[in-house]
Structure formats: C-alpha cells, structure tokens
Automatic annotation (TrEMBL):
MF terms in GO: beta-glucosidase activity
Signal peptide: 1-20
Organismal lineage: Bacteria, Pseudomonadati, Bacteroidota, Bacteroidia, Bacteroidales
Ranges where the Fibronectin type III-like domain occurs: 669-738
Keywords, ordered alphabetically: Glycosidase, Hydrolase, Signal
Family recorded in the similarity comment: Belongs to the glycosyl hydrolase 3 family.
Catalysed reaction equations from the record: Hydrolysis of terminal, non-reducing beta-D-glucosyl residues with release of beta-D-glucose
Entry's EC annotation: 3.2.1.21
Protein name per the record: beta-glucosidase
Pfam families in alphabetical order: Fn3-like (PF14310), Glyco_hydro_3 (PF00933), Glyco_hydro_3_C (PF01915)
PROSITE patterns documented for this protein: GLYCOSYL_HYDROL_F3 (PS00775)
Source organism superkingdom: Bacteria
Any one GO biological process: glucan catabolic process
Length: 750
C-alpha cells in the first residue's frame, strides 16, 4: 500500500517524470552494520546462494526448494507481479534468514512504453531524453516487481556490422559517458530506496563493442592506453553517477575474458573507482571461460571468476557447484566469498528490499500512461536525423494533396520497436501509416502500397505494384530499413546495404519522377549512399519505439523540426570500417584531393597518387560523419571567443559564440565543441567531442552561447600510462558536426 501511495504520488508528477524521491532512511554506516550482523549468521551455503542468479522457470514450487535453502540470491526474467510476490514470500518467510530476492530483467529502452533504441536516444544529444526514458522504464518495470535492470549498455562501438551497436550510444566516449550517466540517474532516481527505483547495471565491462570484425562474442584487442582513453570513461562516469551494479562482458581482451579479469574488476573498478556494488557475470560467461580455453573445467572457471572479483554468477551454476570444494582446498578464500556477499547485501539494503520486498499485485494503470507515451514521442522526435533535404522537400506543404506511403517499415508495429523489447506490446505501437492518416485526416489522400512486406522481402512484383501506385501521388514517402531481428545481440551483418529488394524499391520509386522522401528505421547506420542519391529527402530514425509513427508524421509535416545528429559515423561502404571521427592523427593524412579509382591513368607511377591514408575506391570521407544532421532551418556560427589563449591546468576555459537561426523555422541546433591536443607524448585523436548543447532559436533569433571546459578534462593516459594534462598547443572547434567549424587555438601552460 505504502508502495502504491508513493508510486501514485510520483506518477502524478509526470509530465516531467522526475519524482520527489524519499530520502534514504538509513545511512551507509547503519547498512554496513546490518550487513555484518547478517553475514555472521550465514552458513557458507547461504553465502554462496546469494551469489547465484537463476532464470525464472516452471512453477513457483519448482523454484521454491532452492529459495527455501537460501541457494538463490537473484532471479531474472520474472515479470508477473503475482509470481514475484510468491517467490519473494518464499525467500522472506520460508528461508532461514529471510533475505529478499533481487528480481532482474533486461529493460533496455522501455518496459512497456518503448522509447527509441539507445542509439536513437544518443542521436538526440539530449541527456534529458535518456534520463526520462530510463525513468519511465523504471516506473513501469518496478510495477511488475523488477528492481534491477541490465542497462545502460555503454559499450563504445565503432563497427556497425556489430548488431549490438543498437543498444549503445554510438562511437563517442564523451557522448556515451553523458548519456549513460543520465540513464543511470533515470533508472535509479534520487534514491535507490524508492519503490520506483531500479538498480542500473552498466554493461558490458569492458571493451565488448570492439569485437574483431564486428562479429558478436568475438575477441577484442584493446591495449591499456586505448582501453583507458576510449572504452573505460563511460563506465567511470556511470560509477560516479552511482550505478549500483556492473556486468562483465563476454569478450576476451588480449586473451583475458572479462569475467576472469582481475585488472578491470579489482584494480580499476574497485581500486581506482571505489565501486562498492555488485559485479554480475553476463549470461553463463563464467562457464563460457571453458569454451574460451581460459579454464579447464567448471571448477577452474568458478575459481577464476570469484578471484577476479565477480560477485554473482548469472545462470551457469558453477559457483553453487564448485565454491564449497574450492574453499576447502584453499583455492578461493572465505574472505572473497564474504566480500562478494557484502556487495550483494549492500545493494539489497540500499534498494530497501528487506523492508519492502513486495509489489502491488494490481498491474498499475499507468503502464502506457499518456505522459509516458508523450515522453516516448518527444524522444523519437529528437532522435530523428535529417540527412538530406533537397529543394526544401520537407516539411510537406499544404500543396501536397496526395502522398504514397510505401515500404516495409511503414506499418511494421513490431519491427519499429527495435531490439530488446521482451515486454513491449506491438498492439500499442503507433506506426507511421496510422499516424499519418490521423494527422492529415481528409486533407491529404493517402495511398498505401507497401511493395515489400518485410525488410528482407525480395518480391519484385510488389515493387512494381508500389511504384505504379506511387506514381499517382504528389510525394512518395518510402519507409525502409531493418526488421528488429536484424540488429541486437548476436545479430551481426557483413553487408550493410538495405536488405531484400528495398534498394530496387527506392530505384523504382525514383523512376516515377515524383519526389521520394526516404525514411529509414534501422538498428545501425546502413550504407545507403545510392538511396540517398535517388531521394529528395532522407530522415533516419534508429528504431523509434512505440511512438515512432506520430513523431515521424509530425516531422514530415513540420509540426516538429528535426534536430538529431549522427551518434556514429555512417560508412559509404563496409570496407571502410572501422571509420570514426576521433581517429589518431596519421603521419600521412588524406588531403581529400586524392585520385580515385576511375581517374587513375594507365601505368601510373607507383607514387603518383600521393602517399596518403585513403581508399582508392572509397576515398577518405564517410557517407556522414559523426555529429551530422540538418534542420528545416539553417544556423550560423560566429564570433567564437575563448576566455584566454593561455590556460593553466587548474583553469576553466570559457568558450562563447553566437548562434543565429538564419532560416524560416524555429529549430534546435546541437552545437558541438571539439578539441585536439596538437602535440603530445602519444599520438592523439584529430578531434574529440568535449561539450554539446541543444539550443532552440526562433527564425532570426541570435543567442550568445557559452561552454565551460575545465582544462582538467583534457587529461589523457600518456606515454607513461599516467592520466594527465600535458602542457602545449590545442586546437578547438565550435561546430555543427565533427568535420566543420573554424579552428581556434589555445595553450596550456605549466
Ligand atoms: C546476455 C547479454 O549479453 C546481456 O546484455 C543481457 O543483459 C543478459 N544476456 C541477460 O539477459
């Protein structure tokens, strides 16, 4: 009852979704004392039981035997509140010590109300979008009794072949850090102790996104400096934001699987960052160390995982089976078990589970609450990226009387939700087709002829039919992309062209001579250069979730103005991968005047093309670089000023500039601040994003915008593997994307 009252009070405060959290009633010292008291009463088997996470199965009775004996600390994948309470009752009332279970689920971009996939949220460059999305997810998931989500996924990912790029925030360390921390805040609220707060679990620790060849579960080779400069910072930011738990990754980096990697789990996470929460393995990743050839059997796997610092094992049962023997043999110390159990109990206490383990069994009506749907729609609006808009094709004007809605994604309620939507309900999805019809009413005639029924469909008869129907329209809206199943875990691709006959569809539509507006809904950047050429306008919407339809309809008709920017580089062709903006300076950078394949003279001399870093068939530039995105209006950057051109390491640099809306529409620009450390003890990236801001301006309006950048944030892991700011010359750009802007300079002095 108490839970429901607080929950309703919280929900009443939505539209802006942050709730006044109740304060933690117990301070850390009291919790630590409780942990020690409880620990002193626990048998070894009960301690090991806390370290065991099982996946929900069968009837309550099937699981209750283990729970009664204290052999389960956490259950994942149980989302029925009645069953959650029944299981919790067994733990609280029938186990010897009454330790509550921690109920977990992958709630990645929404529980019921599905927000855009995290990659889409990242395109908004708006941490509030990420925080709101996570808060809505937490409110809805906690109503089912879930108090732990395996999110945010903050693996920096620079290879779109990797299907899991969809789940993260893209290629950039800083953007991922900001968005990831915002998600942690949204999931956990102001206090973990609140019944709508769910523990976050930044994952996958660490380096998983750098899988060789973009193939999931593959090995990574990330040397320590790159690990520290590129892959670790988002996790450090999440730890600083108070993330309660961390998950180890599946990959082995330079030969060490993360689940058995003492350096990352003990030295970095606990030692350097002071993390005191739970480290959980990924699904069976303890036992999988055997397949890696890193452990000979389940005994060695359990030993390596616990000794490296894993507190809880997800579903592979080696801890329960092997730890008693390992302790007897002295291969795992009792103190290691005690430490792991302390970490687990600490989070259970902080979540308030001992006092309030149950959930109200009436599913709350607020699932899919109007305020949740509105927030999801706004997120989808802000996530969409306008890649092309020739002759102001968009927004559609009142002169457009007939539109053809074409393509397999126009009315694909399941697929527009994207990956990881275990609990989302496709019947609640509003598709573009439905939203467009609602928006235009009888003012515009809508011809719907999908042509292809799903993204892999190769039905050329359908293509011809769609083209014939589309020829009757003033404008063609072609919704293409990827089905949800084509991205996400284990769903990697070696070919990033549009699947099925979608390219043929766009080509046939273009042949009609009517303007084609291509809207792509996908889980990754696709190599759509050809389709862009054939289209008058292109909107890219990483799978936009439940409210993707209304968001896109508003954008197409100008009720909303696009403001998203690419959170990841779009390659022209797969062979360019990895292609990302923050690459290190080459000794022979491309000049962009290189001679390409078709212009090479016969029997050209060996060095006649110039010896620079480029592909003869793809040049150097990607299709779209990081941070790119257009608006219906235009913006002018001017008058960039630095507070000083000589700064000390402890100073804060203030960068000011004028941003003016020079077009016809009110719009929001994501202004970006990049820095380059020109000369250092190691080669540094050509640019790194350091700040961004969304600035909304009316037509003709000009604002003076400022960024504050502490010089300490220019620190990096240098040649001596020390994190430091090195004195010297720096370049800085204030720009609409990672490739433009006027360079200005400053110096850092000792
Ligand atoms: C495996 C995935 O790698 C991880 O992200 C997920 O949280 C777990 N399975 C649990 O479902």
């Amino acid at each position: 009852m108490k839970t429901m009252k607080m929950l309703s009070a919280c929900l009443l405060l939505l539209p802006f979704i942050s709730c006044t959290q109740v304060q933690d009633t117990e301070n850390d010292a009291v919790i630590e004392q409780k942990i020690e008291t409880l620990l002193s009463r626990m048998t070894l088997e009960e301690k090991i039981g806390q370290m065991n996470q099982i996946s929900s199965y069968g009837n309550i009775e099937d699981m209750s035997g283990l729970i009664k004996k204290g052999e389960v600390g956490s259950i994942l994948n149980e989302v029925d509140p009645v069953r959650v309470n029944a299981l919790q009752r067994v733990a609280m009332e029938e186990s010897r010590l009454g330790i509550p279970l921690l109920m977990a689920r992958d709630v990645i971009h929404g529980f019921k109300t599905i927000f855009p996939i995290p990659l889409g949220q990242a395109a908004s460059f708006n941490p509030q979008v990420a925080e709101d999305g996570a808060r809505v997810a937490a409110v809805e998931a906690s109503a089912a009794g879930i108090r732990w989500t395996f999110a945010p996924m903050i693996d920096v990912a620079r290879d779109p072949r990797w299907g899991r790029m969809a789940e993260g925030c893209g290629e950039d360390t800083y953007l991922t850090s900001v968005m990831g921390a915002a998600m942690v805040k949204g999931f956990q609220g102001d206090s973990l102790n609140h019944p709508t707060s769910i523990a976050a679990c930044p994952k996958h620790f660490v380096g998983y996104g750098a899988a060789e060849g973009g193939r999931d579960y593959n090995s990574t080779f990330i040397p320590e400096r790159r690990l520290r400069n590129v892959y670790l910072p988002p996790f450090e930011a999440a730890a600083k934001a108070g993330a309660a738990t961390f998950m180890t990754s599946f990959n082995d980096n330079d030969g060490a699987p993360s689940t058995g990697n003492t350096f990352i789990l003990k030295d970095v996470l606990r030692g350097e960052w002071g993390f005191d929460g739970i480290v959980v393995s990924d699904w069976a990743s303890v036992a999988e160390m055997i397949a890696h050839g890193f452990a000979a059997d389940s005994k060695e796997a359990a030993m390596k995982a616990v000794n490296a610092g894993v507190d809880m094992e997800m579903v592979s049962y080696t801890f329960v089976k092997e730890l008693p023997g390992l302790i007897k043999e002295g291969k795992v110390k009792k103190s290691a078990i005690d430490d792991a159990v302390r970490n687990i109990l600490r989070i259970k206490f902080r979540l308030g589970l001992f006092d309030n383990p149950y959930v109200d069994e009436k599913w709350i009506e607020e699932l899919y609450a109007p305020s949740h749907l509105e927030a999801a729609k706004q997120a989808a609006v802000e996530s969409a990226i306008l890649l092309k808009n020739e002759k102001e094709t968009l927004p559609l004007q009142s002169s457009v009387k007939t539109v053809a809605v074409v393509g397999p994604m126009a009315n694909a309620p399941y697929d527009q939700l994207g990956t990881w939507i275990f609990d989302g309900d496709k019947t609640k999805t509003v598709t573009p087709l439905k939203a467009i019809k609602e928006l235009v009413g009888d003012k515009v005639q809508v011809i719907y002829e999908p042509g292809l029924t799903y993204s892999r469909d190769k039905n050329m008869v359908g293509v011809a039919k769609a083209a014939a129907a589309a020829a009757r329209a003033d404008v063609i809206l072609a919704f293409v992309g990827e089905e949800a199943i084509l991205s996400g875990e284990a769903h990697c691709l070696a070919d990033l062209n549009l699947q099925g006959a979608q390219s043929e569809l766009i080509a046939a539509l273009a042949k009609t001579g009517k303007p084609v507006v291509t809207v792509v809904m996908a889980g990754r950047p696709l190599t759509i250069g050809k389709e862009v050429e054939l289209s008058s306008a292109v909107l890219y919407s990483f799978h936009p979730g439940t409210m993707g339809g209304p968001a896109l309809a508003d954008l197409l008709w100008g009720k909303a103005v696009p403001s998203g920017k690419t959170p990841v580089t779009f390659p022209k062709m797969v062979g360019q991968i990895p292609v990302y903006y923050a690459h290190n300076s080459s000794g022979r950078p491309a000049t962009r005047n290189e001679v390409l394949l078709n212009d090479i003279p016969l029997e050209a001399g060996q060095t006649s093309l110039g010896c620079t870093s480029f592909y003869m068939d793809a040049g150097f530039d990607p299709l779209y670089s990081f941070g790119y995105g257009l608006s219906y209006t235009t913006f002018k950057y001017d008058n960039v000023k630095l507070s000083s051109a000589n700064l000390k390491k402890e100073d804060v640099l203030t960068v000011t500039f004028d941003l003016e809306n020079t077009g016809k529409y009110e719009g929001t620009e994501v202004a970006q601040l990049y820095v380059q450390d020109k000369f250092a003890s190691v080669t540094r990236p050509v640019r790194e994003l350091k700040r961004f801001a969304r600035v909304t301006l009316k037509p003709g309006e000009k604002k003076n915008v400022s960024f504050e950048l502490p010089i300490s944030e220019l620190a990096f892991w240098n040649i001596d593997m020390v994190k430091t700011v090195e004195a010297g010359d720096f370049a800085l750009w204030v720009a609409p994307d990672s490739q433009s802007g006027e360079e200005v300079f400053f110096k850092v002095v000792d």
